[in-house]
DNA sequence: AACGTCACG
DNA sequence: ACGTACGTGACGTTA
């Protein structure tokens, strides 16, 4: 019979260890969790390695222990438990409770004493013990049946001590360890020991005499120097020993059977990890769960069976069931729809969750449609189509945009998208990482979704149904209903159409550009190799660094964490010192253009449409902006002429159409003027002044007419800085002035625009009170960084707070405009299409004859998206491609906008 | 998978 | 005495 093992953990010691080993970790709402995470990691690892039969975790309890009675100064120099750690203890205990591991505490005793007591009792029962701790005192408990695992640096390294190891390391037996500490002392517990006696002497004395008491009584036999020390500190040594001796008979009420451990209770653990946002643990558990249920991996003997949210569902198998399903959907009035399939294909299956006949309980009834089964395929798709098309039936989805793509494959439109759980969850907390239905079900419903396909799809539909109610209510409480129902939800369909329309590109021109770039890059490479005296990989920063800073011995300007920095700012600084530098810079630029834009985009042209169909992400950014990928069409070059030419390949979809580009002028500064309510800044915009010139006049104290180009340039940087959360350092670096000078500009700015200063202060203060900031439409971002103990991180949080209100409000505004523009283009049955959004601009593909109408419509919706205290101004350009767009003058004769 | 770099607003 | 501008995505290299 295998031996029975008892794992005993010093909870306090491990928590401290974890706290110091894990740098910084917090939930998206700012709850610090680094110690909980580290503790849990260590726990899992050790449980996995040892597979104990019994487990217990001991904690200190009470400020005063019996040791304080013996010695008032006990642990007096120990720094107080860090403020960030204290609130993590309850969380750790929560994890332990969910793990079904007993937590032991005893008033007036330290964890050590409880461990000593447990070990003593366990050994009597013939159990072998393993103690996990960071406290060396525990070494006195080592015996033939008991080992100690001591944490070393970090959380992953453990050192195992048996009797032999203790002897090797300290030269004493475990049961002499308290005697040893009596002589040597322990500064961390403020145990004095005998000054002047170190570990070598102590070990030698104990080897000779066995016990401290014996050493003391035979004091006359000792060498003179030690005699002296011991005579002076005799009492102190004995007291020190007493303090270091672990109590083995604490009044613990639990019996050993109470520590039997049969594996974690995953069902209790999941919601705990979910609240702590331990995504990797959650994933591991979910995987385990799936495997256990599929029977591929038998649950280990004691492991509890995992419970999953299984929902009964009806598989639609016959034609008549289909027409019944449609009727049921109509009667229900709303349907949660889950589809499976990839973009570019039709859906392979669908699950529909409906209102149950009698409204009992929160659960819907679920129907499952196999859309790949040949027999029923056509009829099933028709039924699905009828449900989707019916504007009377509300559709609840998760990621409606992808659903629109799948349905569109069969020409099915989706009317009445009434909820999107992915978008709703994003608004509730844009920082949350996991946002698939299983993550949301866990977080908001405490349900674990199954992973097997039909079951999973049915459960997903069920979860979407329930989540719509729960998330809808949370949106209401957060006052985000307008943002959700008027902006984000309608935007889902708008973005889908933009993606599907796509952007036509001139593929031939792209190929030409690729060849041209290829030639230029090859020529540059040859010159670079020649100057370097050898061939190397110019794309490798490491190889380039070696050439520049070792072979050519150029001065090292900046380092990265892995070596020399070779970024553009470094190379520009070195430009004069070697002819190779400008060539490398140009090489970099051309390689970027070729790989990312020319070749990268060419590979993504849809062969069927000849266009690029980017994906817009509505639930990615922390601020509320969109992002774009595959390809990213929000970062097409414009600043450098060579790159800007890429825009030539973006053309209208047909002969006779034009590209129309409409961009907000200075939207972020206008938003700032409004939100800050600064009279001076508002006035500047109302008068239609060039804002950078105006700021230059204010900051440099000159008349508008006296502002030079240089002054305007610096003022422009100041304006940018304000939006980003300014610092003198950043500004100084950006415009190449001294830090003092930058400081002065900023001070002048705040004097001239005092409302802005107030706004920044107010925003940060409110963010600290609430833990989050909001935009004009109540979009929310939590900022846990504001509460960091690290000053740099905190400052970052403060800059982010200010920037998010501005960037996010600008995002609110353009999204609102997009929804309304799309709506009116549709109502007017115009052939013009909105094809791109680039944060502050919208791009359209417009038949020439529609240009006047579309232009007016676009301007109207963009400029009036929200009424602010300053006008919103839109600049319009049009042309045969995205490169050759020329400014269209604003309608004349209008009175100056107020 | 992480890093450095660089394209955009 | 620190170390900083805010928000993204794609590429190639290196581990």
From TrEMBL:
It catalyses: DNA(n) + a 2'-deoxyribonucleoside 5'-triphosphate = DNA(n+1) + diphosphate. It is an enzyme of class 2 (transferase). The keyword DNA damage applies. One of its GO terms (biological process) is DNA-templated DNA replication. Keywords: DNA damage, DNA repair, DNA replication, DNA-binding, DNA-directed DNA polymerase, Exonuclease, Hydrolase, Nuclease, Nucleotidyltransferase, Transferase. Residues 1-262 form the 5'-3' exonuclease domain. GO terms for molecular function: 5'-3' exonuclease activity; DNA binding; DNA-directed DNA polymerase activity. Residues 290-310 are annotated as: Disordered. CDD domains: DNA_pol_A_pol_I_C (cd08637), DNA_polA_I_Bacillus_like_exo (cd06140), H3TH_53EXO (cd09898), PIN_53EXO (cd09859). Its EC number is 2.7.7.7. It comes from the Bacteria. SUPFAM superfamilies: 5' to 3' exonuclease, C-terminal subdomain, DNA/RNA polymerases, PIN domain-like, Ribonuclease H-like. It holds the Pfam family 5_3_exonuc_N. Residues 643-850 form the DNA-directed DNA polymerase family A palm domain. Residues 290-306 have a biased composition (Basic and acidic residues). Belongs to the DNA polymerase type-A family. In addition to polymerase activity, this DNA polymerase exhibits 5'-3' exonuclease activity. NCBIfam families: pola (TIGR00593), PRK05755.1 (NF004397). Single-chain monomer with multiple functions. This is DNA polymerase I. It comes from Desulfofundulus thermobenzoicus. The gene is polA.
């Amino acid at each position: 019979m295998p031996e029975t093992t008892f794992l005993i953990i010093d909870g306090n010691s491990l928590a401290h260890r974890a706290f110091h080993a894990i740098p910084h970790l917090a939930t998206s709402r700012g709850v610090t969790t680094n110690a909980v995470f580290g503790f849990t990691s260590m726990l899992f690892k050790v449980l996995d390695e040892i597979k104990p039969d019994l487990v217990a975790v001991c904690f200190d309890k009470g400020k005063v222990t019996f040791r304080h009675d013996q010695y008032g100064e006990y642990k007096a120099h120990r720094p107080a438990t860090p403020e960030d750690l204290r609130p993590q203890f309850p969380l750790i205990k929560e994890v332990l409770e969910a793990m079904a591991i007993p937590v032991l505490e005893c008033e007036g005793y330290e964890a050590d004493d409880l461990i000593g007591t447990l070990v003593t009792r366990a050994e009597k029962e013939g159990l072998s013990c393993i103690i996990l701790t960071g406290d060396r005192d525990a070494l006195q408990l080592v015996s033939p049946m008991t080992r100690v695992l001591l944490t070393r640096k970090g959380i992953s390294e453990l050192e195992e001590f048996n009797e032999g190891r203790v002897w090797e390391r300290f030269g004493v037996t475990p049961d002499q360890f308290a005697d040893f500490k009596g002589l040597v002392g322990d500064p961390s517990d403020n145990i004095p020991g005998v000054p002047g006696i170190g570990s070598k002497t102590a070990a030698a004395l104990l080897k000779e005499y066995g016990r401290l008491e014996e050493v003391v009584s035979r004091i006359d036999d000792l060498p003179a120097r030690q005699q002296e020390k011991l005579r002076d500190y005799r009492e102190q040594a004995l007291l020190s020993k007493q303090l270091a001796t672990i109590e083995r008979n604490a009044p613990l009420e639990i019996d050993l059977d109470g520590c039997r451990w049969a594996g974690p209770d995953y069902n209790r653990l999941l919601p705990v990890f979910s609240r702590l946002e331990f995504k990797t643990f959650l994933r591991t558990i979910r995987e385990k769960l799936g495997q256990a249920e599929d029977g591929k991996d038998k649950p280990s003997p004691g492991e509890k069976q995992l419970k999953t949210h299984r929902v009964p569902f009806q598989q639609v198998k016959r034609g008549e069931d289909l027409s019944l399903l449609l009727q049921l959907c109509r009667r229900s009035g709303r349907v949660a729809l889950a589809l499976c399939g990839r973009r570019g294909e039709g859906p392979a299956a669908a699950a529909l969750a409906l209102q149950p006949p009698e409204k009992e309980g929160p659960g819907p009834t679920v129907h499952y449609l196999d859309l790949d089964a040949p027999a029923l395929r056509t009829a099933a798709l028709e039924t699905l189509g009828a449900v989707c098309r019916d504007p009377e039936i509300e559709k609840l989805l998760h990621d409606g945009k992808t659903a629109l793509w799948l349905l569109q494959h069969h020409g099915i439109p989706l009317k009445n998208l009434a909820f999107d759980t992915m978008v709703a969850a994003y608004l509730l907390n844009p920082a949350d990482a996991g946002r698939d239905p299983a993550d949301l079900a866990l977080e908001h419903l405490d349900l674990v979704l199954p992973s097997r396909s039909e079951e999973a799809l049915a459960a997903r539909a069920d979860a979407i149904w329930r989540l719509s109610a729960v998330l809808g209510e949370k949106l209401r409480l957060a006052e985000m209903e307008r943002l959700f129902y008027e902006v984000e939800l309608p935007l889902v369909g708008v973005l889908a159409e933009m993606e599907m329309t796509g952007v036509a590109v001139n593929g031939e021109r792209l190929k030409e550009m690729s060849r041209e770039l290829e030639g230029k890059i090859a020529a540059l490479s040859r010159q670079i190799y020649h100057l370097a005296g050898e061939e190397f990989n110019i794309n490798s920063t490491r190889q380039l660094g070696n050439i520049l800073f070792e072979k050519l011995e150029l001065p090292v300007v900046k380092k990265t964490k892995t070596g020399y920095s070779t970024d553009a700012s470094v190379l520009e600084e070195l430009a004069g010192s070697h002819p190779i530098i400008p060539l490398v810079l140009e090489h970099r630029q051309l390689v970027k253009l070729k790989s990312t834009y020319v070749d990268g985009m060419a590979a993504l042209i849809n062969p069927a449409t000849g266009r690029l169909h980017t994906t817009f992400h509505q639930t990615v950014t922390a601020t509320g902006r969109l992002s774009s990928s595959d390809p990213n069409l929000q970062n097409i070059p414009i600043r450098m002429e060579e790159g800007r030419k890429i825009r030539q390949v973006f053309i209208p979809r047909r002969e006779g159409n034009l590209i129309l580009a409409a961009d907000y002028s200075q939207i972020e500064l206008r938003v700032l003027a409004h939100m800050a309510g600064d009279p001076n800044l508002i006035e500047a915009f109302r008068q239609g002044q060039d804002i950078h010139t105006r700021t230059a006049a204010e900051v440099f104290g000159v008349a508008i007419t006296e502002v030079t180009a240089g002054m305007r340039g610096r003022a422009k940087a100041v304006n940018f800085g304000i939006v980003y959360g300014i610092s003198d350092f950043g500004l100084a670096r950006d415009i190449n002035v001294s830090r003092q000078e930058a400081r002065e500009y900023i001070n002048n700015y705040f004097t001239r625009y005092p409302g802005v200063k107030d706004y920044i202060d107010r925003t940060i203060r409110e963010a600290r009170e609430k833990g989050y900031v909001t935009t004009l439409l109540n979009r929310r971002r939590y900022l846990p960084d504001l509460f960091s103990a690290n000053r740099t991180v905190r400052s970052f949080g403060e800059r982010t707070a200010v920037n998010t209100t501005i960037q996010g409000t600008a995002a609110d505004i353009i999204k609102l405009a997009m929804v309304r523009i799309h709506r009116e283009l549709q109502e007017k049955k115009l052939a013009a299409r909105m094809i791109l959004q680039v944060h502050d601009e919208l791009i359209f593909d417009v038949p020439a004859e529609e240009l006047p109408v579309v232009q007016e419509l676009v301007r109207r919706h963009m400029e009036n998206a929200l009424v602010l205290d300053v006008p919103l101004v839109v600049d319009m350009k049009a042309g045969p491609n995205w490169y050759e767009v020329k400014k269209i003058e604003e309608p004349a004769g209008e009175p100056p906008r107020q």
